[in-house]
Every structure is written in C-alpha cells, then in structure tokens.
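FORM 12-B: Structure-to-Sequence Request
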C-alpha cells in the first residue's frame, strides 16, 4: 500500500458513502463545485513521483550521509548537549507529546501544562526573576522581543543600547527589529559603561560572545538612573554557577534553553526563554502558564492572562507569537527534572573545568586569551585562525574563528579531557596539570535554585519514564482522538517522516558548520524550497521563519522594504479583513505598519463596498492587504481575484495568509491568483507536528519582484548591525540561516511520499471531510457560512448563537462537554463569537467522523432538554461538564442527572473512556491570583483544604 492510502482516513468505500451524503458522485466533482474556477491552476503540478516510505527514508539517509558531524566546540549561542535517551524516546518521539495542540483547553492539557510550568519555574529560579513565559522562538528573536517590551514599558525613550558582546546573529536580528519600530540603535561594549540619554533600555551580554564575564550591576544601576530598563542575555547552564541577573536588578532576562538537552538541529527548533519583574508580567510576550482551581477547588493549570495574546488583542497585542517551541521547552524542562540541581551543577562545573584546562594549556604555551574569567568559552588571540580551524576540522572538530587572529573554543556537555588534548595540540600546546581559573567571586552563585520537589525526586530512568507517561496520559492528543480544530489542521504526522529528525547526521550539526560539511542539509533544503515554490506558484521560497507569525512578519517586511526601495516611504497602511487571523494585525504592528480593518459581508466574504471605500481613502498610503484564503469563515470567496486586482491597481501588494493551504494544495496556487507573498504553516498543511504549541515553521514564498527582500542570513559577514541593512535587501528574521531546520525532514518526507497527485488527493479529502461533517451537523447546529452549492472549504463554522439565546448553553459549554466524549473541542469563538469552527482534515476515517457527529448530536439533544424546560441550565449535565473519574466515583453525587449520563453518554465510551484529570477551570480566579511557578506538593493533597492555591 502506498503512503497516501495510509495517510487518508477514508478508504474508497467510505469516501463513496460520504459523497453520497454530500450529493456528489466523485471527490473531483465535489472539489470542482467548491473551488471557484477563477483561481484554479492551469497545469498539473510539476512534482516528482511519490516515493514509498522506505525509499523516502533511503533518500533522506543519502542526504544525511553527505553531512559531516564534527565535534562541536563552536559556541556562539549553540552548544553541544546530550539528550537523555529516555527523554528522546519518551517525549520527542512519542506521539502523545508531539501531536498535542496548544493548551487552550486546559482540562485536557494538564500534562503538557505541568511540563511547561516546570520550564517556567526552572527559568525563574535560574534567572532570579519572579515571572517567566512558557518559551519563545529563539535567542535572537527573544532579545528583539525584550527590546520591544522595554519600548512599550518606557514610552519616553527612543534609544536602545545593545551590548557589542552579544552574539553577532543576536545583534543583527535585534538591531533590525528595533529599527523596524523606529528605535535608534547604538551598539557598544557595555562593560565599559554607558553613554547618552533618552533610553528605553539596554541589552547586556552575560557572558560575552568571546566568553568573558563581567559584573553587570554598575551598568544596571546606570541605566536605571536614566529611566531605562535592562535586559540581560544569559547562558542558562552558566546560571548554575553564576548569580541570576534578576538578583542584580535586571528587569528582563532572555536566552536559549537549547543546551538543556535539545539537539543542535542545524540551528533550530530551540526554545528561548524570557523572565521579567512582576511589574512587566502583563506586557510580556508569549504564553504564560498559571495555576488556577477547578470547579471542586483543586489546583489546575491553564494559560494565564490570555487577554494579552495576539488572537484577542490583534494590533494591540504585545507580540505576534502564536506557535512557540513548546515541545523543545518540555525537553529542556525534563532535562532539568532528570538531572536535578546537583546533576546540572556537575555538568556546569565539568564544562567550566574543561574550558579551564584548555585555557591553562594555551597560556602555558605563551598564547593570550581574551579573558581569564570565563564559563565555557575561551578565545585565543594572536594565532593563525584559519590554519588552526582547518587542522581541527581535519581532526573532526569545529571551532570558531573571529577575524584572522582569534579562535574561540566553547565546551559542551559531551566534551572530554581527551578533546582538550586534541584542541590544545592544534595550538602547539600540551595539557597541563594546574588549571586555576575561578569564576569571578562578585557574580558567583550563592542563591539556591531548583529547590522544588519536582527537580529533586525524579532521577532514575524508571521514574522519568513513568513521569512522562503520567503527564501524557492526562492529555488528549492526536494519538487518542480527532482534534477538529478549525484553521489549525491537526492531521497525521507520519512516523516515517518523524524518525529521521533525531538521526545524528541531521540533529548534531551546528548551524555555523562549514558549507562543505553540510552538503546534505543544503541539498534537502534547496529541494524542499523548490517544491514549496511549485506548490504555491511563487518564484522563490525561504524557509527561514521559524513560526507562522514570523513568516507573516517576514512577508510584511518584504512588502514594506519593497515600497521603501521604490521611494514610496508613505505606504504604511495594511488593510486586514475583520475575519483575519489574529496574528495578521499583530504582525503588521511589529512591522511598524498601521492597520485598517475591512468589514465582512453578510455571506462571510470581504465587503467589496467597504474595500473600495478604504482604498479610496487610504490608497496612496496603502502598503497592501492581508487575506486568508480560503477565508477564515471556511469558504472559497469567488471574488478573491477582484480583491487582488483592486489592491494592485492602487499600488498595493497582496499578502495571502497560507494557513489554509490544506484546502488549496494541488488545486490552486496563491502566487498565481493574485498573491505577491504568502507564508505557509509547515506545522499545519505539511505535517510538522504542533507539539503542544510548537515547533512551527512559517516559510514565505514571494513573486519575482520581492525576491531581493527575502530573509537574509543573520550571521553573514557582510551584515553590519551598527548600520541599518541596505534598503534594497531583506533582513534576517531568525538567528540561523535556515530557521528551524531540524524539523524540515518531516515536510520533505511528507511531500516526497505523497507526490503531486497525492497532495491533490489529500486536499480533496480534506474538503470532503469538512462537507460531510457540515452536511451531517447542519440540522443540529446551522453552518454559518457556505459557498457555491452550499459547500464549505476544508472547515466549517457551527453557529450556536440562537441555541445560546434559547437555552443559555454557550459554545464554551459545548467545548467542555465534548471532553466527556473524548474529544478536543473545535476552535472556540473564532472568527465569530458564539460559534465553533470544525476542521476534520483528510486523515480521519468515517468511523471517527461519525463518532464526533454522534457526540455533537447527543449534546444537541441535551441542549433541547433545557429548551423544552425539562431541566434548568444551571442544573444541566452540560453546565457542569467535564467530569473526572474522581467526581463520578465519589460517594457524594449532588446532581439530578445520573453518573452514567455525565461520564458515559454514549455506549461506545464504556469500552474506551478518557477522563480529564480536573473539572472545569475557574479562569478568572487564575488571573486574580496569578501563580506562574510550580505549586507546593501539599496543594494537591486531596485530604487538605481545597483552597490551597496562594500567590507565590
């Protein structure tokens, strides 16, 4: 059986049965009716024939074999680390973890929320600040986010100081992002003090890119005295031995958690972190996990302060971040849990000791090092840098050269004393017995960290194996059930595509490895970019953006820079339909563009009259329009070409959000029906798993005229962060040239195994599944918007508003009740309040679709009982859903409905029942009593007072 047959849920007979309900003889006839002819492709896709799973893996093996895995002593923000096998097998490679969705429904996400809370607690403890988020995208963009946060908090200043001791790629990304929001950027060695006024703040390196350590307290005090804030970019492992910057008065601490067990992955995905002072918590970007209580007063985890998020605040959001790096943050948190504080200190001390041994050897030879105070990195000056680098490369080692006469050597977890000898020999030195390089006493750590029981109780493999299983068992992921989330495309993540990402020849490659050692990676990426260009109809694709939100930002910056290069500096307005994804408006704000909203027509399409009015008013200043296609309303708008033509006629560019490419691939190309630029979500259409909120990849495709403005390499020698990037070029979006390269083999394998015909077939079946659900549920929950012949695209919106008016039952109530049937809820209240947006994907067979239909019809009958007056809403089974095993087995049952109705409302659940670990959460309580670190164990003592969650 070929891969596509295994990827598609319905077989031929099931598809025929589904088509009969929808009223079509074939899938092709259905798609021909649903997708407007005006946007259809003229020619078939020019794609290679589909490979079998075995052949695809063999080709990936050939690519992997072209890579040379050098022992990595390069550093510059990326460190050698060891992923414990139990974490690799039990988390990275376990579908219960990697197929989970973002934890917006907390009752079914308690396991991954606990893991992320562990991550936050770890970061808070090590950095010395009280609030940390549940991860950001990479270190460079985290520093950029810190600059943005300082700018929002200190409104009077317009200058930001960036420490020249930051890593070069961090400097480049942060400087360009700061300039994009009209900040003046000054780069200086902050260890020499501070000059100037009008500051929003500064970013200080702790430690420096060449390895030096300096006490930041004087700089922090000086910046504060001038009204600015201070962000510190820190190495997380070093903070086991160095004091957390928060104890010195830092307002924000950022960095990467990569060296906590996350492979190098040729540059990503790697979870960044941010911690802040209490006063900045409501402006902090990214997601924040907090502790609340459920309906029975038990502690329960949730995403806190969600009103800050882009999907709610839109252009007023603190960030455009949607997908972060949750899966990798979980790896880092489990690494800390597994090793514990003593184990982590042992690793840190060993790393420092090896660096000291190397430093002693080269100094004994008479060579000069940049600083005698260092953690893991020693930079040797006055040497033949190229010659040493070349000789070490021949010996299988990767080190960093800085200019012509400096070599930087950075030690990681797997380094040995034998490596020290090889490295020293390349400098003409020999190992010595005495290596006395103490860390500076002024910043040596005295504060205890990781004191919570979770970091001090799970150190055997047996314990870790069971802890990972315990957490995943609390959650609903794709390995248990369909996740019918509209706009998020939770489809099969093929195992054959997932396996290769942990092969050492892919996973253990440093992003700054020489080109001749990464030929396999570069060939794979080049081929993938070519395939994506063909699928989208664009001239060229860049895979650099490491999330859909970053793809949006990259696309908008390309448009803006194109206008500026043409002298149209006034074009700074972006039209955005009211139904657009929340990230669209937030991304426009980050690109320093003004947002003008275009109304939605009665049928859910763009209101053309309002569009004409907005173009007439803003045309001369219009940069472009952002369109999601098919629309977020789940409909193929037939007038999309007309919209594009109107915008082009006024001199604007068209950005087509590619989040819904699962309804287009193989049938229509955004680059051919009017788009100038689109981003794709490889974690949606192209099967990179969501991982509980990341990793994501958001590549952009552009038309010919925008190619010069594609993202550039942040580490390129020709870039000078002290000066703005030339107008006629693009800017870097992420720290590494290829973004989250480590997960690209997944998309490569999916496309290779599917082929052009298979991709077209997958789209067809996605549309079939959505229309089958719409057809079967329309009588119970009216479909809000439909297109040609009453059809929808790959998703549909169930309208509950009239039912809510008649019964009091809300869409949120239905979402919670679905948990009792073992389902993740559809997308709640987006893009229309009071609705549920459902997307089944092509991977679900008819049995799973029918199980969902049965659940929704059963819930509809429960709503009818309220409407008919048989039960009051407050007393109904829906109002109190969901139900835990503890609640239905308790001696106390105070409800009028039976335990069976609560927990086993349909017969099939008697054989396959999921119980959530908590009852419905009290969302407001968690925001009023914000707790964002691990609660004490006694908080979960069921024999104690239930009101045990206090502000920490």
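FORM 12-B RESPONSE
SEQUENCE OUT:
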């Amino acid at each position: 059986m070929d891969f596509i047959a295994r990827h598609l849920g319905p077989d031929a007979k099931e598809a025929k049965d589904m088509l009969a309900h929808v009223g079509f003889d074939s899938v092709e006839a259905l798609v021909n009716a649903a997708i407007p002819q005006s946007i259809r492709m003229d020619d078939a896709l020019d794609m290679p024939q589909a490979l079998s799973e075995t052949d695809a893996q063999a080709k990936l093996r050939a690519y992997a074999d072209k890579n040379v895995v050098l022992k990595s002593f390069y550093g510059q923000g990326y460190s050698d680390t060891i992923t414990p096998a139990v974490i690799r097998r039990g988390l990275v490679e376990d579908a219960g973890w990697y197929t989970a969705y973002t934890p917006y429904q907390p009752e079914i996400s308690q396991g991954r929320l606990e893991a992320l809370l562990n991550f936050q607690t770890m970061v808070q403890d090590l950095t010395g600040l009280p609030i940390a988020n549940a991860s950001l995208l990479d270190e460079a963009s985290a520093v950029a986010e810190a600059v943005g946060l300082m700018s929002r908090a200190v409104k009077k200043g317009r200058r930001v100081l960036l420490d020249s001791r930051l890593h070069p790629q961090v400097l480049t990304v942060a400087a360009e992002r700061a300039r994009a929001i009209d900040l003046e950027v000054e780069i200086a060695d902050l260890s020499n003090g501070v000059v100037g006024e009008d500051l929003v703040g500064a970013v200080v390196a702790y430690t420096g890119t060449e390895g030096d350590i300096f006490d930041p307290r004087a700089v922090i005090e000086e910046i504060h005295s001038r009204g600015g804030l201070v962000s510190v970019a820190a190495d997380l492992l070093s903070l086991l031995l160095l004091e957390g910057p928060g104890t010195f008065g830092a307002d924000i601490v950022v960095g990467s958690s990569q060296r906590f067990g996350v492979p190098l992955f040729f540059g990503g995905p790697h979870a960044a972190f941010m911690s802040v002072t209490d006063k900045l918590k409501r402006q902090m970007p990214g997601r924040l996990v907090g502790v609340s209580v459920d309906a029975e007063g038990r502690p329960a985890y949730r995403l806190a302060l969600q009103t800050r998020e882009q999907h709610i605040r839109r252009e007023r959001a603190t960030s455009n971040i949607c997908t972060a790096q949750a899966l990798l943050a979980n790896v880092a948190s489990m690494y800390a849990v597994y090793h514990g504080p003593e184990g982590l200190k042992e690793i840190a001390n060993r790393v420092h000791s090896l660096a000291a041994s190397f430093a002693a050897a080269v100094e004994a030879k008479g060579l000069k090092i940049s600083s005698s105070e260092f953690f893991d990195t020693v930079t040797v000056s006055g040497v033949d840098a190229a010659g040493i680098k070349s000789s070490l490369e021949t010996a299988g080692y990767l080190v960093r050269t800085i200019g012509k006469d400096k070599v930087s050597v950075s030690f990681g977890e797997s380094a040995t004393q034998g490596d020290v000898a090889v490295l020293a020999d390349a400098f003409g030195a020999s190992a010595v017995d005495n290596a006395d390089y103490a860390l500076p006493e002024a910043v040596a750590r005295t504060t205890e960290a990781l004191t919570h029981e979770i970091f001090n109780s799970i150190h055997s493999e047996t314990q870790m194996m069971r802890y990972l299983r315990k957490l995943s068992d609390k959650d609903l992921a794709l390995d248990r059930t369909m996740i019918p989330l509209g706009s998020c495309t939770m489809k099969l993540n093929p195992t054959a595509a997932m396996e290769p990402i942990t092969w050492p020849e892919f996973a253990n490659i440093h992003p700054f490895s020489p080109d001749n050692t990464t030929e396999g990676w570069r060939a794979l990426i080049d081929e993938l970019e070519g395939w994506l260009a063909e699928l989208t109809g664009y001239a060229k694709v860049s895979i650099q953006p490491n999330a859909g939100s970053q793809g949006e930002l990259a696309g908008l910056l390309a448009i803006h820079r194109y206008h500026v290069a043409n002298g149209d500096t006034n074009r700074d307005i972006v039209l955005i339909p009211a139904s657009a994804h929340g990230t669209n408006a937030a991304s426009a704000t980050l690109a320093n563009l003004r947002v003008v909203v275009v109304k939605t027509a009665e049928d859910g399409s763009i209101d053309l009259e309002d569009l004409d009015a907005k173009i007439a008013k803003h045309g001369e200043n219009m940069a472009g329009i952002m369109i999601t296609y098919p629309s977020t309303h789940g409909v193929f708008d037939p007038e999309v070409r007309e919209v594009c033509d109107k915008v082009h006629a006024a001199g604007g560019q068209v950005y087509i959000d590619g989040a819904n490419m699962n309804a287009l691939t193989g049938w229509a190309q955004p680059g051919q029906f009017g788009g100038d630029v689109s981003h794709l979500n490889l974690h949606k259409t192209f099967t990179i798993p969501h991982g509980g909120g990341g990793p994501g990849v958001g590549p952009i495709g552009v038309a010919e005229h925008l190619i010069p403005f594609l993202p550039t390499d942040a580490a390129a020698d020709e870039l000078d962060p002290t000066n703005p990037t030339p107008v006629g070029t693009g800017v870097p979006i992420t720290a590494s040239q290829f973004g989250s390269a480590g997960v690209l083999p997944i998309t490569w394998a999916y496309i290779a195994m599917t082929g052009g015909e298979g991709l077209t077939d997958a789209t067809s079946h996605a549309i079939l599944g959505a229309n089958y659900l719409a057809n079967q549920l329309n009588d119970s929950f009216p479909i809000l918007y439909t297109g040609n012949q009453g059809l929808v695209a790959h998703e549909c919106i169930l309208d509950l508003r009239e039912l809510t008016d008649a019964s009091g039952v809300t869409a949120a109530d239905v979402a919670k009740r679905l948990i009792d049937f073992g389902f993740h809820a559809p997308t709640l209240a987006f893009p229309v309040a009071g609705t549920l947006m459902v997307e089944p994907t092509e991977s679900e067979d008819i049995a799973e679709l029918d199980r969902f239909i049965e659940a929704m019809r059963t819930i509809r009958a429960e709503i009818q009982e309220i409407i008919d007056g048989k039960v009051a809403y407050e007393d109904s089974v829906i109002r109190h859903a969901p139900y835990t095993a503890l609640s239905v087995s308790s001696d106390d049952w105070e409800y009028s409905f039976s335990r069976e109705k609560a927990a086993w409302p349909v017969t099939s659940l008697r054989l396959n029942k999921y119980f959530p670990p908590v009852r419905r959460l009290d969302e407001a309580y968690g925001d009023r009593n914000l707790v964002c670190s691990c609660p004490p164990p006694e908080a979960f003592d069921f024999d104690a007072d239930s009101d045990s969650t206090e502000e920490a």
